[in-house]
Amino acid sequence: MIQVGEKIPAATLMEYSEVEGNGCSIGPNAVDAHKAAAGKTIAVFALPGAFTPTCSAKHVPGFVEHAADFKAAGVDEIWCLSVNDAFVMGAWARDQKTGDKVRMLADGSADFAKATGLTLDLTGRGMGLRSNRYSMLIKDGVVKALNVEAPGKFEVSDAATLLAQAKAGV
Is 55 a catalytic residue? Predict the structure, then answer.
């Protein structure tokens, strides 16, 4: 499992965009995790799946609600990672009204989850290999704080915990 002080793995995440930007940006766009984190402070939270009960009712809403507090604490971006495809993450972003507060990034093949060692096998529940529920604070691509949940729990990866760590300058 990735540890505090280590660099995040090289992985390509996908982000769905509904708004035209430079070039042909509508639709899924590749996000190089290393390049996107370079020179920035990122609050990352990952979860088992889009539209799942705890993820939709508690995890994402907490980060959306505290987005301005994270900015005030020096966090440049908030990323939500899930082992879903970019289209699902885009639909979930609309449903959760994340707007420009949280980047909803798809780890469709679980490459990032596998490379961090933060996978969760939910095959027995019909969901396959997923990401464990966790949060981490990244500065210039290096993990500064990591909060990994025990299976079925939602106690340490919430927005309030990571926000307190960001405010403390972890």
Answer: yes
